[in-house]
Amino acid sequence: MSRPAAPPRRDLRARLVRRVELSADAQLLRFESASPSPALPGQFAMLRLEGGGLLRRPYSYCDLDDSGDPFRFSLLIKEVGVGTRALMRLRDGGTVSCLGPLGTWFEPPSAEETAVVVAGGVGIAPFVLFCRRLAEAGRSGIVLLGGRRRPDLYLREEFERFGMEVRCATEDGSFGQRGYVTELLPEALADATAPRVYSCGPTGMLLRTAELARRAGAPHQVSIERRMGCGMGCCLGCVVWAGRRPGDPPEYLRSCTEGPVFDADAIAWDRDPHPL
Amino acid sequence: MSRAEAPAVDLGVEIAGLHLPTPLIAASGTFGYGDEYAGVADYGAIGAISAKGLYLNPRDGCPPPRIWETPSGMLNAIGLQEVGIERFLAEKLPSVRALGKVLIANICGSSFEEYGELARRLDDAEGVHGIEVNISCPNVSAGGIEFGCDPDMAARATEVVRRGTRLPVIPKLSPSASDIGGMARRVEDAGADAVSLINTIPAMAVDVETRRPRLANTIGGLSGPAVRPVAVRMVWQAARATRLPVIGMGGIAGAEDAIEFLLAGASAVQIGTMNFVDPGVWRRTRSDLEDYCRRHGVARVRDLTGAMEPFPPAPEVRR
Ligand SMILES: Cc1cc2nc3c(=O)[nH]c(=O)nc-3n(C[C@H](O)[C@H](O)[C@H](O)COP(=O)(O)OP(=O)(O)OC[C@H]3O[C@@H](n4cnc5c(N)ncnc54)[C@H](O)[C@@H]3O)c2cc1C
Ligand SMILES: Cc1cc2nc3c(=O)[nH]c(=O)nc-3n(C[C@H](O)[C@H](O)[C@H](O)COP(=O)(O)O)c2cc1C
Ligand code: FES
Known about the structure:
The complex is a heterodimer.
Chain A: E1 10-23, E2 26-33, E3 44-48, E4 57-60, E5 63-65, E6 71-78, H1 82-88, E7 95-102, E8 114-120, H2 125-136, E9 141-147, H3 156-161, E10 165-170, E11 177-178, H4 185-191, E12 195-200, H5 203-216, E13 220-223, E14 239-242, E15 251-254, E16 261-263
Parallel strand pairs in A: 8-9, 8-12, 9-10, 10-11, 12-13
Antiparallel strand pairs in A: 1-2, 1-7, 2-6, 3-4, 3-7, 5-6, 13-16, 14-15
Chain B: E1 13-15, E2 18-20, E3 24-26, E4 48-50, E5 67-70, E6 73-76, H1 84-97, E7 102-107, H2 112-123, E8 130-134, E9 138-139, E10 145-146, H3 151-164, E11 169-172, H4 180-189, E12 195-197, E13 201-203, E14 206-207, E15 212-213, E16 220-223, H5 228-241, E17 246-249, H6 255-263, E18 268-271, H7 273-277, H8 281-295
Parallel strand pairs in B: 3-4, 3-18, 4-7, 7-8, 8-11, 12-17, 17-18
Antiparallel strand pairs in B: 1-2, 5-6, 6-16, 9-10, 13-16, 14-15
Helix pairs in contact in B: 2-3, 3-4, 4-5, 6-8
Bound molecules: flavin-adenine dinucleotide, flavin mononucleotide and FE2/S2 (inorganic) cluster (FES).
């Protein structure tokens, strides 16, 4: 897997063609558009739709099929407010305006490394595409999924289908180990040869993952969620207190442009207030 | 009449000695240093770019959260995070210059000396065509009161910039000024070549669950369609008060909004927040503006400036 260049950004109209209810407040939405937007795992799009608020909202590409025409992609959406609600109530055939792909992406593990994914809640989204690409390259990895209850372990079967070793934790113990997903991490780090950690989810989970990965000496890339105004690097609303590279002095970096995927070591977790 | 045989509309405008191919300008702080929207926005429809606000020295800006959506608008408290004039000239200007656009630098000072110094540094910078003076910044030595609230301070800031440069000087007026017409006259007397307005309106929002302000800075600036009627009123007042060309902005989302500003007295308009929402706003606004001019038999878009008709007097009503 060689290092790709940033794909070109476009603002496309996309049409909702399929909706899968994953839980009471989460859906997988599949869209089609006439021209492709070949996103890399971890990249996101800014969506705009009727009734979904003024500003666009950022969502990770969850999966995509760029093999043919029309181009298809799916988003994993959890309802939290007006924008996500409008998306989840979009009628079949309804359209959205989709600006993407934007931001940085997860670097694939090297030939010696084993991917260890730590994903919580809607943070699971970017890893479907990530694991699809791993599987296409004939690789496997360990995927740790966490959620409050069993229905929150979105798309678990999808990861199994890609041949990943999936381990789960729920806070109420309704599936997998009871507790937080990060409690599964020490063992996964021990089981994997040359583990390389990838994480996306609630801030508490990211913090704990960063701590455990650092202690194990494992490289770790993290995807950060921030309120975004433009997604294009212009409003400076989405900043994270981080260094450009590990070791660089921290400054406010744009999570839409220098992120959302950062090296965990580059983020000054102690000073970054990580609010939304 | 089909499109092909439709008469061409002249969209060009002259402002402060600058010729803009269209009256649409990218608003400062919403279009980066200028090249960020390459490949997404239609740069051909953009008449000029007002670059991100520049301070003399690099600044970290405010801690997040820095933005919050409001009904038909947004609050921002970015705190002018930026690279400083040195790095702007060395690292940003060359790629922005390559766009071949009219570039207006937007400057911000924490003292009169800083405004003067910025003007001198930009004066001979190749590819900078004008200076927009953001006076909605706190004057540190005057206890942090905005230059733009006080006509004396606004006039003096304009004057020091005027003395520092031969480039067109465009003070950007703050909606916090109590008498916007008087303010426009003061900066005119101080040597301004045009004025632009409005900057964001100081505003705030509170999260009732956590009882905290929505922005880390507590107060932010309101922009977007929510401010548009306020902005149109202020542009009208400023245009009546001075002979200077006025650049109007505040919530413009398309041609109809832009024309509203032009009729109220603006010679050109800026688009900010709505570019975030729809980068297609440039192409759409230009083409709808042309259509409007054709429909109304307007050959040159500059003929729309100040062309608002007074409301007809009410008929005598017998009581
Ligand atoms: C790079 C990136 C990728 C994302 N990927 C996904 C995804 O794949 N699926 C998904 O469901 N969500 C994703 N999110 C979060 C999603 O953007 C927010 O849930 C959405 O913007 C909220 O919009 P709303 O109008 O529904 O909520 P609002 O009414 O705007 O806000 C409701 C609540 O959501 C919080 N919120 C607002 N903006 C964000 C934000 N950018 N991130 C997180 N919370 C926010 C607000 O603080 C508030 O508490 C992603 C965010 C980022 C930055
Ligand atoms: C995120 C953001 C950053 C801004 N930064 C600046 C700035 O640096 N300098 C300035 O003069 N105005 C700045 N503005 C104000 C805009 O240029 C404009 O005056 C205002 O937003 C109203 O126009 P709009 O409603 O079209 O956005 C900023 C606005 C926003 C939303
Ligand atoms: S969202 Fe606007 S700069 Fe990142």
